[in-house]
User: What shape does this take?
Amino acid sequence: MSDDARPPRRSRGPLLSWLALGCALVVLLVAMAQRRDEPVGDRTVGEVTRVGVVDGASVPAYLGAAADELARLDAPDGWALVSFGDYLTPARVATTLAGAPVSAVVARVPLPGRQTEIVRIAALRLPDDVVGGMAEVAGRKDREAADYRARAAAPAAAADAGLRRRYDTDAAVAAREAAGYRSGCACVYAAVVRGAPAVLRALAARAGVRAVDPAPEVTRLDRTVFTPPLPEQRDVARPPADTGADAGGGMGDSSEAAPTVSAPSPTGRARVAGSASPNPAPTS
Assistant: This one.
């Protein structure tokens, strides 16, 4: 048979193009399905909400701003920071906050002339959770005191009188904190609660409550830093004066010589981006 008599050969170009396009479409559909199955990342990571008084700001201005916001509050149930006028025992906290859903309390051992650590204790049941949380903190403080004593006895401290004295002082303060928490001390000065506006306003009128600062913007407690004013802070929010007084003696009010200021009223909270811990920062 001659070449002219053979049937014409069909071109494969269009067929291969359609096959390639189909494969690409299948790959795209599979990729889109897998993407839908992947968990969506937390867009709030690194974002922290701060509720309370700003360090160095006017305490009266903060209290006034919190009262004004509470009076205007019309949101549904939301979180709020309750500050007390004095350091309270777990039993008094339970009495003062009776009927209000509580999430946590804020506490510190008020030692004269000492900056002590601020701790946040989860407390859904009052006063039991507060007592249990204090016992856990007491155990940690015992370990801190033992560690400081070991450092004071180390050769490095033996050759440096100032360093050894510092370790001895830190050990004594930690031991006194441990003793205070173990005894269920009057150390709680704030709480995080949740309630409707009417509940929060009624709470603000109770004896012993210094302020109720509503925080309707808070959606995640683990990404919120609460900074209530200390009971002894009357003019300016600042850490108690660490005077370095003798570590002996009993507990009492922390010393603070805060000057009167005329700073503008702070908002009391702000959203900030960063990796700051949502737990209260220690003051020691």
Remarks:
- Helices lie at 13-37, 59-72, 90-96, 128-152, 155-158, 161-182, 197-204.
- Residues 13-37 form the longest helix (25 residues).
- The mean pLDDT is 80.
